[in-house]
Write a structure and sequence with these properties.
The strands form five sheets. Strands 1, 2, 3, 4, 5, 6 and 7 form a seven-stranded antiparallel sheet that branches. A three-stranded antiparallel sheet has the order 14-15-16. The chain is built from two helices and 16 strands. β5 and β6 form a beta hairpin. The model has no long low-confidence stretch (mean pLDDT 93). It is elongated, with a radius of gyration of 22 Å.
């Protein structure tokens, strides 16, 4: 919303929105991670246009940030280096990451900082009660085995061990209906929703993977039966 493009560039795609995710930004004091709603826009040099220098491109965006009222957070950058910036307006904190590639491509990412809000719906259809599903998710038919074995990672201090559990095995796969339309559901958004729901029902969280390892393992009681999920 706060960043346009140079006259010689045009958007390559519609903006990509992600409902809730995290991104690291560079500051003079080091990196900070911000969470919220992400917008990504890509720009390409128009055919027949002369290539500007990387310095010219980034100088334009540095000026655009100043005009918008944003503050550059990596002030020790060289003139053609990536730009990280922060803007607070109307009570909304927005962070920017702007970069250029080979003087013919520009990428812009903006995160509007916001707290996590659960969007998990009550259980219905093919859901495994007592957990529901994301509003953007459509469940396939469950695959059930009366007796099987599954392996679950369990965090123990700084180490992770695999625990094998035997019993009735149920597998559910959800397809995200917004995968091609957006706003996309990120790994973080999906995991945070399930973690919040599991904690609310008193489940023991045994493993929480990072954003690049989107897994959650929990154990809880469901009507007198111990369930590993």
């Amino acid at each position: 919303p706060y960043v346009g493009s140079m006259e010689s560039f045009s958007p390559t795609l519609d903006p990509d929105w992600t409902s809730y995710t995290q991104l690291a930004f560079q500051t003079d004091q080091g990196k900070v991670t911000k969470m919220g709603r992400l917008c990504y826009q890509s720009y390409a040099l128009k055919p027949g246009q002369p290539k500007p220098s990387g310095l010219e491109i980034m100088a334009n965006y540095e000026q655009a940030m100043a005009t918008a009222g944003a503050t550059i957070t990596n002030t020790k950058r060289n003139g053609d280096d990536d730009i990280y910036a922060k803007l607070t307006k109307d009570g909304v904190e927005t962070w920017f990451y702007i970069w250029e590639g080979n003087s013919d491509h520009v990428g812009v990412k903006e995160i509007q900082v916001a707290p996590f809000k659960s969007t998990l719906l009550p259980p219905s259809g093919n859901d495994y009660a007592p957990l529901g599903h994301l509003s953007t998710a459509v469940a396939r038919a469950p695959v059930k085995s009366n007796y099987d074995e599954a392996t679950f990672p369990v965090q123990s201090g700084n180490a992770t061990q695999n625990v094998k559990v035997r019993g009735t095995h149920i597998k559910l796969i959800y397809d995200l209906s917004n995968y091609r339309k957006g706003p996309y559901t990120s790994y973080l958004d999906a995991q945070q929703n399930y973690r919040a729901a599991l904690k609310a029902m008193g489940a023991q969280i045994l493993f929480e993977g990072a954003d690049d390892d989107p897994r959650t393992v929990a154990r809880f009681d469901n009507k007198g039966k111990t369930v590993w999920m």
